[in-house]
UniProtKB/TrEMBL annotation:
PANTHER family linked to this entry: FLAVODOXIN-RELATED PROTEIN WRBA-RELATED, FLAVOPROTEIN-LIKE PROTEIN YCP4-RELATED
Single GO term (MF): NAD(P)H dehydrogenase (quinone) activity
Alphabetical list of Gene3D superfamilies matching this protein: 3.40.50.360
Domain Flavodoxin-like intervals: 16-204
PROSITE patterns assigned: FLAVODOXIN_LIKE
Family: Belongs to the WrbA family.
Protein known as: NAD(P)H:quinone oxidoreductase, type IV
InterPro entries, alphabetized: Flavodoxin/NO_synth, Flavoprotein-like_sf, Flavoprotein_WrbA-like, FMN_Rdtase-like_dom
Organism the protein comes from: Kwoniella newhampshirensis
SUPFAM superfamilies assigned: Flavoproteins
GO cellular component terms, semicolon-separated: membrane
Pfam families with a match to the protein in the record: FMN_red
């Protein structure tokens, strides 16, 4: 028999869904750091991959890798229902999200109709080719989706001083973690990128945990 105290302890742990799409692995590397950070807070973290929509033949010509064999289960809209917080990750495409993520969002109409995501917390991370290639605009142009679902966005602000690092070319924004992949995709995440991503996971995990503990106190 489960005691009331142990039930309360379990319910006080937030469930955080990390849903991401990664074509070449850049977003995947940030996702692992974010997952690590969120897990460090004691949250129940559930990672998912957002389904690829391009044919295998096209992806092979693009020399794509991670989207052909995702490490985690493919997410469905119903997987978002149990979450207290959601962390979305995807590369930028012309300053907005790629079609794969938009296709997933289009499947969440049933959640919108029932208000299933209203009041849940959300944040984002991304990657782009250059320093001014859509890091922040990708997050800003996704906000309408969050607003229509009643999701509450949690930005990092400047809570991690490394966001102001000028000693190397790195990503990171007050809206969330990011990295610079380079025009040919050859640049990988820096130590600073991964550190800030881990910080985002911890910050978000603690933020959501505070809310959940308050509800169950």
């Amino acid at each position: 028999m489960i005691s009331p105290s142990s039930t309360r302890e379990h319910r006080s742990k937030p469930i955080i869904v990390v849903a991401f799409y990664s074509t070449y692995g850049h977003i995947g590397s940030l996702a692992e750091a974010i997952i690590k950070g969120a897990q460090a807070t004691g949250a129940i973290v559930k990672p998912y991959f957002i389904e690829e929509t391009l044919p295998k033949e096209v992806l092979e010509k693009m020399h794509a890798g991670s989207s052909l064999a995702p490490k985690y289960p493919l997410i469905t809209p119903d997987d978002l229902k149990e979450a207290d917080g959601i962390i979305f990750g995807a590369p930028t495409r012309y300053g907005r999200l790629p079609a794969q993520v938009s296709a997933f969002f289009d499947k969440t109409g049933g959640l919108w109709a029932t208000g299933a995501l209203t009041g849940k917390f959300v944040t984002m991370f991304t990657s782009a080719a250059g320093q001014h290639s859509g890091h922040e605009s990708t997050m800003l142009t996704t906000y309408p989706y969050f607003a229509h679902h009643g999701l509450v966005y949690v930005p990092m602000g400047y809570s991690d001083p490394s966001i102001g690092n000028l000693t190397e070319v790195q990503g990171g924004t007050p809206y969330g973690a990011s990295l610079i992949a380079g025009p040919d995709g050859s640049k990988q995440a820096t130590a600073g990128d991964l550190s800030f991503a881990e910080h985002q996971g911890k910050y978000f995990g603690n933020f959501v945990s505070t809310f959940v503990k308050g509800k169950t106190a």
